[in-house]
Write a structure and sequence with these properties.
This protein has 178 residues and is mainly beta. The protein has three helices and 13 strands; from the N terminus they run βαβββββαβαββββββ. The strands form three sheets. Strands 1, 3, 4, 5, 6, 7, 10 and 11 form an eight-stranded mixed β-sheet that branches. Strands 2-12-13 form a three-stranded antiparallel β-sheet, with no helix packed on it. Strands 8-9 form a two-stranded antiparallel sheet.
């Protein structure tokens, strides 16, 4: 894994409050990311997961420097990215809650044959090898090569979980515009 760093531009003029206000108006899919770099598993909820390339299969996400899970994820060789449906709202909230044992309920998670912790109830999950990460402002961007994926049976009938304007939402036929 290699690490790069992006330096801050001296011409930045947009305030962080204005930037966050703009992005509150942009809906994002919700994912939970798990990793273990040898000191026990960590978990966090992210709305920054994005596909990068289908061939090779690459995805990326960003991590806040303030998250207690960030150091472990940045040291991990592999991660599991869980793409959530509205039926997994409690899982999303679990990953977004600080100061708790996110793995206390052993009925929610299992271990893959390769050793990673994952949540079988997720709509879909992707296990990937961390290729690189780089510092970017108060965050880190992580690039992952997908090496295994699984989609829950009936996932096409499940509605996606979306985060918009500080609130959880679901997408469904009622929200289709074209």
């Amino acid at each position: 894994m290699t690490t790069a760093q992006v330096t801050e531009s001296p011409t930045t003029s947009l305030s962080s409050d204005d930037f966050k206000a703009a992005f509150r108006q942009h809906p994002a899919g919700v994912a939970v990311i798990t990793a273990n770099s040898g000191n026990g598993p960590v978990m966090l909820t992210a709305t920054s997961v994005s596909s990068v390339s289908a061939d090779p299969a690459l995805l990326m996400f960003s991590l806040s420097a303030h998250s207690s899970s960030t150091p472990t994820i940045r040291r991990a060789e592999t991660v599991v990215v869980h793409l959530l449906g509205a039926g997994q709202l409690e899982l999303a909230k679990l990953g977004a809650t600080s100061g708790i044992d996110r793995f206390a309920n052993t009925d929610l998670w299992s271990t893959l044959p390769s050793g990673e912790v994952y949540f079988p109830g997720a709509r879909a999950w992707i296990r990937g090898r961390v290729l690189t990460s780089m510092d970017a402002g108060g965050s880190a961007i992580v690039l992952v090569e997908a090496i295994e994926a699984s989609t829950q049976e009936g996932a096409d009938e499940q509605v996606p979980l979306v985060y918009y304007n500080r609130t959880w939402h679901e997408l469904g036929a009622h929200s289709q515009v074209a």
